[in-house]
C-alpha cells in the first residue's frame, strides 16, 4: 500500500508498489542504497535537499524518483515539463565518495550527460555506427542531451548547502523525456524538445531506462574518480558544439565565437575575438 511521508508540513503519497518502479529491483541492480518512489512531488531535487541533512552516509547514493513533478525545475529560471511518461529523478551523493569537489563540478555534469547518452543508446536500439555519431545522439555542453537536434534530457546539479553532512553532498537532478511525447508538451516548454518515444516510435520501459542510466552513471563517475581519459574522450566525441558558432552567457559575460573542443578538465574551449577562452559554466546558444 502507498504510505504517506511528511514533506514540508504536508503529506505526500509515496508509492512502494508503483507499477512503474520496483524499488527493491533498483537497489539490487544499481549502486543506489536508498530508494524513494513518489507518485507526485513538486521537485525531486527539493525532496533530495530535504533528505540531504538527514540520511546517514550508508544510505547514499539515494534515489528519489517521481512519476510526476508539479514544479520541476530547470537551470536558471526555467521550469521542467514533467508529465506522466517522463523520467524525473534525483540522486543524492556524498561528493567525497566520488572524488568530486567544487573544482570538478563541470566534469560531474559531463559524466552524467555521457551516462545518459550511454543509456539512451541502448533505448535507441542502434547497433550501427549511427549510434556513435554525435549528430544522432550528443551533448550540448555542459549538460543537455540531444537526439537528432531535440533536447531529450536536462541535468540540474545543486548543492544542498547548510551544515554538515548536507554541505558535503550533491544533488544530481535528471529529467529524461521518455514516453511523454513532445507533441503533447505545452507551448511554454519550447519548440526544441523531443522524447525517446518520438524518435523510436514506440514506448519504453521507464524502469529499464532508469536502471540503464544509473548503471551508466556508476561507470562514468568511476571514470571521473579515477581520472580515466575515456570520460573526456567520450565527451569530446559526443560534443555537438564542436566547430559550431556559439554564444555563451556566463557570469554576466557574453562570449561569442567558435567552439573548438572540450578540454581535459571539462572546460568548453571557445575561440572568440578576444582569443581562446576556457569556460567552466554558462548557457550556450548555437548561432544558426
Ligand atoms: C535543464 O535542462 O534546465 C535541467 C532540467 C533538470 C530537470 C530535472 S527533473 C528531476 C530534477 N528535479 C527537478 O526539479 N529538476 C531536475
3D architecture notes:
Helix 3 packs across helix 6 (229-237). A hairpin with a 2-residue loop joins strand 10 (245-250) and strand 11. It contains six helices and 14 strands. The protein has helices spanning 23-29, 44-52, 105-123, 196-200, 206-225, 229-237; strands at 3-7, 10-14, 34-41, 62-69, 87-94, 137-140, 144-147, 150-158, 169-176, 245-250, 253-262, 268-272, 275-279, 283-286. The protein is globular, with a radius of gyration of 18 Å. It folds into two domains: 3-237, BirA Bifunctional Protein, domain 2, CATH 3.30.930; 245-286, Roll (SH3 type barrels), CATH 2.30.30.100. Helix content is 24%, strand content 31%. The model is unreliable at 1-16 (pLDDT under 50). A seven-stranded mixed beta sheet has the order 3-4-5-9-8-7-6, with helices on both faces. It is α+β, with helices and mostly antiparallel strands. The site of biotin has 20 residues, from helix 2, strand 5, strand 8 and strand 9.
Low-confidence stretches: 1-16
Rg on CA atoms, Å: 18 Å
CATH topology of the largest domain: BirA Bifunctional Protein, domain 2
Portion in strands: 25-35%
Whole-number tally of structural domains: 2
Query: Taking strands numbered 1, 2, ... along the chain, how are they ordered across the largest sheet?
Result: 3-4-5-9-8-7-6
The mean pLDDT is 88
List the ions, cofactors and other small molecules found in this model: biotin
Which descriptor suits the 3D outline? Answer: globular
Topology pattern, helix = H, strand = E: EEHEHEEHEEEEHHHEEEEE
Please state the structural category: alpha+beta
Distance between the termini: 52 Å
Amino acid at each position: 500500500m502507498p504510505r504517506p511521508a511528511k514533506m514540508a508540513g504536508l503529506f505526500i503519497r509515496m508509492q512502494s508498489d508503483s507499477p512503474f518502479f520496483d524499488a527493491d529491483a533498483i537497489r539490487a541492480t544499481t549502486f543506489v542504497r536508498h530508494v524513494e518512489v513518489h507518485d507526485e512531488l513538486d521537485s525531486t531535487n527539493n525532496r533530495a535537499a530535504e533528505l540531504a541533512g538527514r540520511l546517514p552516509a550508508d544510505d547514499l547514493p539515494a534515489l528519489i524518483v517521481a512519476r510526476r513533478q508539479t514544479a520541476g525545475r530547470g537551470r536558471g529560471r526555467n521550469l521542467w515539463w514533467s508529465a506522466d511518461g517522463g523520467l524525473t529523478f534525483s540522486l543524492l551523493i556524498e561528493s567525497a565518495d566520488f572524488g568530486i569537489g567544487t573544482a570538478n563540478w563541470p566534469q560531474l555534469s559531463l559524466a552524467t550527460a555521457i551516462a545518459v547518452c550511454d543509456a539512451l543508446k541502448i533505448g535507441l536500439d542502434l547497433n550501427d555506427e549511427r549510434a556513435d555519431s554525435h549528430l544522432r545522439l550528443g551533448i550540448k555542453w555542459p549538460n543537455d542531451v540531444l537526439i537528432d537536434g531535440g533536447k531529450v534530457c536536462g541535468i540540474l546539479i545543486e548543492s544542498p548547502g547548510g551544515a554538515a553532512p548536507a554541505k558535503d553532498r550533491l544533488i544530481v537532478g535528471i529529467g529524461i523525456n521518455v514516453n511523454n511525447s513532445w507533441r503533447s508538451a505545452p507551448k511554454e516548454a519550447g519548440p526544441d524538445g523531443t522524447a525517446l518515444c518520438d524518435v523510436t516510435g514506440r514506448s519504453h520501459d521507464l524502469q529499464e531506462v532508469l536502471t540503464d542510466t544509473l548503471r551508466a552513471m556508476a561507470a562514468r563517475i568511476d571514470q571521473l574518480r579515477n581520472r580515466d581519459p575515456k570520460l573526456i574522450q567520450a565527451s569530446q566525441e559526443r560534443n555537438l558544439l564542436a566547430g559550431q558558432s556559439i554564444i555563451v552567457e556566463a557570469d554576466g559575460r557574453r562570449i561569442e565565437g567558435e567552439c573548438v573542443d572540450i578540454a581535459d578538465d571539462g572546460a568548453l574551449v571557445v575561440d572568440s575575438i578576444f582569443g581562446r577562452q576556457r569556460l567552466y559554466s554558462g548557457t550556450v546558444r548555437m548561432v544558426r
